[in-house]
Structure formats: structure tokens, C-alpha cells
UniProtKB/TrEMBL annotation:
It comes from the Bacteria. The keyword Lyase does not apply. Residues 488-605 form the OmpA-like domain. InterPro entries: Bact_OuterMem_StrucFunc, OmpA-like, OmpA-like_sf. It holds the Pfam family OmpA. This is OmpA family protein. Residues 570-589, 726-746 are annotated as: Disordered. Keywords: Membrane. The keyword Membrane applies. CDD domains: OmpA_C-like.
């Protein structure tokens, strides 16, 4: 037994040693494995975070745990970094200790509103402080809108109003009340106004009122537009010569077209800023499509001029331009023009040699005449230039010398210029065989007058062709009042018999019939003009109340005018309240003067729907000088007889007590106008007018009307005076330049 115990002792010790060794080896292996996993996890996670752009994150390990630290820009970035790490190691091993950067405190929002006003009301949109009294805002605008709709689409934010907000808001409301067609944008410290007015005068008044009421410290950006002027004829003239490139006249129908035209001028050599007027009256919306290539054609030529008059384009190239360059420029321009436009191109030829048929042309528009073609010598060139200057004013003389012209050529050009003077605008061309005249005139007998002048100069046998259109607006004998005269009439009626109102109301007080009758008479021949009927008040009461009262009173007068049967289709009413005083509101007399109804002209051009008459076209051959002189004599006799009849019949009627008999002044007026009305043959009426250089009575009877023919006893009429009893009247005209030159040569 003892030996058995002795043998077991070493075995136990050996077992214990083996167990201890195995345990130590296991610990060492486990420790090595843990260190490997820890290092590998840290490396993999750090690489993944760097690849994802999370450089702000720091990775550390604690055994199998992966700890993330650092400061993320926001919560989203923190979550994405954590998710990235969990895609590399098990999620339960990731310890998230990432901090999120604190957000900056949120400031107040940007407060801004817009007020959109038109004839139907006012709309308000935007963001305002919650403390704003929106009911008071709407009530203030409703009083100004005169029954129009107020749409409050404003949102609020519970933040204090920023500096400059209240002053800008109050000013913006006043601006919306001043402008009837506008968008008013309000922001802290600034107000922007974009408005449309009915006239240039109203535009200036609005701009002045906006600037006058602008508070200190508030910036204003105002864009106020007014109707464009009517330009007739619609004209553009571009010239390039020794003086440089320039616009002598420039009109455009819209801003885009104007910019294109000005840019084309700059490209052609115009120095500095070119001015081009925006206006109405363009013959087509494609005006710039014709103007731009026309200007470019002059640039291609290097020198010359181009004139656009409505749809007619005239291109002139001086002799210095090579023929190949001229042909290429004309072909390119002709191809680029819209179908509506007609091109007339002229290339000045060298004086030697001159080939082809002789030709002369003249074009007038807006007191400007262009002379092109040939003339015999420099003396004749100067004579024709002087004659054209006396007839038309500004002269562009492009005549070139040709000594080989046929006999009588200068006389034909002079006759053509005198015939052209019967038109308000147009052109004339002369060849050895034909004189062709076309254009527009304010005289219904322009064709007859033109033929008479040709006959007087050229004698019998000269062929002519005429195409002349009558425009009644240019007729001085119609005595159609201008827009300013119409407005003066109306204001004169109001000053002599003004319409009164009940205090503080728009109800007409008293009997307005006398005033309405006066307005009806003043509106004769004035219905085609755009006229504004405006109400004005004194300064007593609130500004808003006065504005509304003035509009209501103006509307009441407008309704009364129409109810009276006055034709005023283009008259509009408005009210300006106390904004336009004409006297001191501190006195009773001044306040009474400020309470008024006033008429203003909105457009100098009448609005007319009349159709344009077709041109009168015919051809013929001139009469002889003897026939023309006989017609002038007969017409002068008839004119003088007509004047005598009016002068004698007038006093007789008045003495007999006939109701409505003419006064002495009426007799004088009738006697002065009778010669024109009594012309027997309209063809020579122009010669009669030129011949009667003294009143008809004085010309016929210089000795106090001695020799008046006795009455023939029939119906109290007075017989016509025989031609032989009248003094000889020699018609006068321009000097015979060619005859003078021939005499000078002798």
C-alpha cells in the first residue's frame, strides 16, 4: 500500500504540470488571436470610413469592441458613419461615441410682400411679421380700390420686424395708392415700383410724387412707362460718309428691335450712344428685320445711305463704291428683306462716261427731300438745290453732273419739284419722256394742282402719270381742331360754368344742363381724341378719402356727359385727390380753386377708324401755256365775282332783318374765303391762290368798288362781272431758271 502511494505522487505532479502548460499555451494563443482581431477590425473600419468621406471620425478598439469618436457635421452624417462601420464588423461590436456639431441659431425669415394693382382691385402676397395689423392694411387699400376686390394672400411669421420694415411698408402702401396700374414690392429698407401710366405727363407726375413722399433711409427703384408716340411715316435713315456713320432718323416698334437696330448701327461704325425712338405706327412687326440688313448693307458698301419710309426702302451708294460690291450688297439686302418691303437701290455713276437714259428723282418726307439723278452743270445743280430748299427745307442733294442731257432737262426737273410741292409726302421721277408723281396730300385737288404746275412750266405735250392719295387729316381747309384746342375748349366751359357737388359727396348739385350743353358744343370734332376727365379736391380730410371722392366726382360728371348724349368714346375719368393743387390750401379761395374738374389731353394723335382712301391714279398730257393762262383768268374772274356777291348780299340780308343774317365780321370772312370756293376749274386753283396776292375785292375794284355790275333783276341775284371789266391779274411763280442761265451765257 505504501509503495502504491509513493508511485502516485510523481504522476499527479506530472499531470498538474501538463495541465498548467496547456493552460498557458491556450492563454497565449487566445491573446494573440484577440490582438489580431482587434488590429484587423480597427484597420478595416478606418479604411471604410475614409473611403466614405468620413475623415472626421476616429476609430479605436477595445478587444473585440470598435469605438467610434469624433464630431459629425450633423445627425445625418453621424448615422451614415455608424452604418458604414457596422457594414465592416458586427453591429453589436460598434460603440457610437460620435458627437454632432451644434447648429447655429435660426434667424428671422426674410419679410417681403408684393401689392399687385389693376382696374379690378389689389392683390397682396408675401410674408410679414405676425404683429402687422392686416385688417387695417386691407381697410386702407379697400378705400383706395373704389369697390375693387382686395385679395389678402399674406402669410405671417412670429418674429420681430427687422429694421427699416415699417417705414418701407408704410411707403409701399402710399405708392400703391398713387399708381393705378402697378406692382409694388416691399422689403426692409427698400421699395420697388413698376407702373404703367396713360400719358407722359402722368408718368412724370407719378415719378415726382413717389420721390417726394419717399422717407429718408428708404431706397426706391421706380420703373414707370407711358404710351409710345405715334410716328408717321415710320422712318429710319442711316448715313455713312466722310463725317462718319450716323442715324439721321431712327424709329423702332419695340425694345428688342431697337436694341438690334442700335447694335447694327454700332457694327456699321456709329460712335457713342445712338438714340432710336420707340413708337407706334410701324407698318409691320418685322420692322427691325428690314432695318438691320439695310444698315448692314451700308456697312458693306463702306459709304452711302439708306432710308426706310414705312415699307419703302431707298439705298444709295456713291460712285466710289465698286460695282461688284454694290451688286453684292443689293442682292444680299433684297434677299433678307421681309416680303412687305420694296427696295429701290441707286448706284451713283462716275461723271465720265455717263450711259443710259437721263433720269431725275426727288423724295420728300418730314420736311426733308432727297434729290438723285442728273443735272446739266454745277450752276443748275445749285439752282435746283435752292428751289428744293425753299419748297421743302432740308435737302439731301445727290445730283451728279451730266453735260449731255437733252435740251429742257433743267426745266423738267424744276416743274417736277414744283408739282412735288403739292404733296405732303411722296416722290417724283423724271425721264425725257415721262414725269411720274406719287404720294399723299391734304388737298382733295392735289392732282389738279400738280397738273396745273406742270402745264404752266412745260407747256403742251408733256406726258405725266399721277398716283395721289387724299388724307383728310392733312387738309388745312377742314379746320379740324387739335387735341390741345379741344381740351382748352372743355376747360374754358368748366371755368365759366363749373359743375358743383354736395359737400363731401359725389352728387351733382344744382342744374348742370348749361355746363353739359357747353361741353357738348366743345366736343364737336373732338370725339376722336383721348381725353382724361380728372377730379381734384382740397387737402381737408384724409388723403385716401379725398382720392376716392375725386374719382367718384369725376365718374359722376362722366356719366352726366354721356347721359346728355355727348359723343365721347375715348374720354376716361380718374381722380387725383389732393395731389395736384393749383392754389394754396391754407386759404378758402385756394381750397375752392383746388376743388375742380379738369380735362387733359392723353394723346396728340386722334383715334380714327376711317378707312384710308385709295390713291387717285391717271395719266395725261399737259395743256399749253395759253390754255392754262385762259383758265387762270376765268377762275380769277369767277373768284372775284363770288367775293363781290358775298360782300353785297351780306349787308342786304342783315338790313332786311332776316334772322341769322351775317355780321360785318362774317361778311369779311365770307368774302375772303369765297374766291377759293368759287373757282370754276379746280385744275388751276393753285394758280388762282398764288395770283390773288391782295384781297379779291381790292384786286377787282381798286377804286372803292366802282364799276359793280347792276343786278339782272332775277331773284335778287347779282350778275357775274365780265372778264374785260376786271384788272389784269398776272399769275406769279418761281423764276425761269433755265432761261436766266441761257441769258447769262449770252
Amino acid at each position: 500500500m505504501a509503495n502504491r502511494r509513493t508511485r502516485r505522487g510523481p504522476a499527479v505532479v506530472a499531470s498538474l504540470i501538463a495541465i498548467a502548460a496547456a493552460g498557458g499555451l491556450s492563454f497565449v494563443g487566445a491573446r494573440a488571436a484577440a490582438d489580431f482581431i482587434e488590429t484587423h477590425s480597427a484597420t478595416e473600419v478606418a479604411a471604410a470610413l475614409k473611403q466614405g468621406g468620413y475623415d472626421w471620425a476616429t476609430v479605436t478598439t477595445d478587444g473585440l469592441l470598435v469605438r467610434l469618436t469624433g464630431t459629425a457635421p450633423d445627425e445625418v452624417q453621424r448615422f451614415r458613419a455608424k452604418s458604414r462601420a457596422e457594414s465592416v464588423v458586427e453591429p453589436d461590436r460598434v460603440i457610437d461615441e460620435i458627437q454632432v456639431a451644434a447648429r447655429e441659431s435660426m434667424g428671422a425669415p426674410q419679410f417681403e410682400i408684393e401689392l399687385l394693382r389693376n382696374d379690378h382691385g389689389i392683390s397682396i402676397v408675401g410674408l410679414v411679421p405676425a404683429a402687422l395689423d392686416r385688417k387695417a392694411m386691407v381697410a386702407s387699400l379697400r378705400a383706395e380700390a373704389a369697390g375693387g376686390e382686395i385679395s389678402d394672400l399674406v402669410e405671417t411669421a412670429d418674429y420681430p420686424a427687422p429694421d427699416g420694415w415699417q417705414a418701407a411698408f408704410d411707403y409701399g402702401l402710399r405708392a400703391a395708392k398713387l399708381a393705378h396700374q402697378a406692382k409694388v414690392s416691399i422689403a426692409p429698407g427698400s421699395v420697388e415700383v413698376r407702373a404703367i401710366t396713360d400719358s407722359a405727363l402722368e408718368k412724370a407726375d407719378l415719378e415726382t410724387a413717389l420721390e417726394k413722399t419717399r422717407p429718408a433711409g428708404i431706397s426706391l427703384k421706380a420703373d414707370v412707362t407711358a404710351p409710345r408716340p405715334v410716328i408717321t411715316p415710320f422712318t429710319l435713315r442711316f448715313v455713312k460718309d466722310d463725317k462718319g456713320a450716323r442715324f439721321e432718323a431712327c424709329a423702332a416698334n419695340d425694345e428688342a428691335g431697337r436694341d438690334r437696330i442700335v447694335a447694327a448701327g454700332a457694327g456699321a461704325g456709329v460712335a457713342g450712344e445712338a438714340h432710336c425712338t420707340l413708337g407706334l405706327g410701324a407698318p409691320t412687326t418685322r420692322w427691325a428685320d428690314a432695318a438691320v440688313p439695310a444698315i448692314q448693307a451700308v456697312a458693306t458698301l463702306g459709304a452711302g445711305a439708306v432710308t426706310l419710309t414705312d415699307t419703302q426702302i431707298t439705298l444709295f451708294a456713291p460712285a466710289s463704291v465698286p460695282p461688284a460690291t454694290y451688286d453684292a450688297a443689293v442682292a444680299k439686302l433684297d434677299a433678307a428683306l421681309p416680303a412687305l418691303f420694296n427696295l429701290r437701290a441707286e448706284h451713283e455713276k462716275q461723271i465720265e462716261p455717263i450711259r443710259g437714259p437721263a433720269e431725275f428723282s426727288a423724295v420728300i418726307a418730314n420736311d426733308h427731300v432727297e434729290l438723285r439723278g442728273r443735272i446739266g452743270n454745277e450752276r443748275m445743280r445749285g439752282a435746283v438745290d435752292s428751289l428744293a430748299s425753299s419748297r421743302f427745307g432740308d435737302v439731301d442733294n445727290g445730283l451728279r453732273i451730266d453735260p449731255s442731257l437733252p435740251e429742257g432737262w433743267t426745266l423738267r426737273t424744276i416743274a417736277a419739284i414744283e408739282a412735288l410741292a403739292t404733296l405732303d409726302q411722296g416722290s417724283v421721277s423724271v425721264t425725257p419722256d415721262l414725269i411720274r408723281l406719287s404720294g399723299i396730300s391734304g388737298s382733295p385737288t392735289a392732282s389738279d394742282m400738280a397738273v396745273a404746275r406742270l402745264s404752266q412750266r412745260l407747256g403742251a405735250g408733256a406726258r405725266y402719270e399721277l398716283s395721289i392719295r387724299y388724307d383728310k387729316r392733312l387738309d388745312p381747309l377742314l379746320v379740324v381742331p387739335t387735341g390741345e384746342e379741344c381740351v382748352d375748349r372743355l376747360n374754358s366751359v368748366m371755368s365759366q360754368s363749373e359743375i358743383g357737388f354736395e359737400p363731401g359727396k359725389s352728387i351733382i348739385a344744382g342744374d348742370p344742363e348749361p355746363t353739359l350743353a357747353g361741353i357738348s358744343a366743345a366736343m364737336q370734332d373732338c370725339a376722336d381724341y383721348k381725353i382724361e376727365l380728372a377730379g381734384h379736391t382740397d387737402s381737408q380730410g384724409s388723403e385716401d378719402m379725398n382720392a376716392k371722392l375725386s374719382r367718384d366726382r369725376a365718374k359722376a360728371v362722366m356719366d352726366a356727359i354721356r347721359a346728355h348724349g355727348v359723343a365721347a368714346p375715348h374720354m376716361t375719368s380718374t381722380g387725383y385727390g389732393e395731389s395736384r393743387p393749383i392754389a394754396d390750401n391754407e386759404t378758402e379761395a385756394g381750397r375752392e380753386a383746388n376743388r375742380r374738374i379738369e380735362f387733359t389731353l392723353l394723346s396728340e394723335e386722334p383715334v380714327s377708324d376711317d378707312d384710308i382712301s385709295a390713291p387717285e391714279q391717271f395719266a395725261g398730257i399737259t395743256d399749253s401755256a395759253e390754255v392754262t393762262a385762259a383758265k387762270i383768268a376765268r377762275s380769277a374772274a369767277a373768284a372775284a365775282s363770288g367775293a363781290i356777291r358775298v360782300a353785297l348780299e351780306g349787308p342786304v340780308a342783315a338790313d332786311a332783318g332776316h334772322p341769322g343774317g351775317p355780321t360785318g365780321a362774317e361778311v369779311i370772312v365770307a368774302a375772303a374765303t369765297a374766291p377759293a370756293n368759287a373757282v370754276a376749274n379746280a385744275q388751276v386753283s393753285i394758280q388762282v391762290i398764288e395770283a390773288l396776292t391782295v384781297p379779291a375785292l381790292e384786286a377787282a375794284f381798286p377804286d372803292n368798288m366802282e364799276g359793280v355790275a347792276e343786278s339782272d333783276g332775277q331773284d335778287g341775284e347779282i350778275a357775274d362781272i365780265p372778264v374785260e371789266d376786271l384788272p389784269k391779274i398776272e399769275p406769279m411763280g418761281p423764276p425761269d431758271v433755265e432761261a436766266a442761265v441761257k441769258a447769262d451765257k449770252k
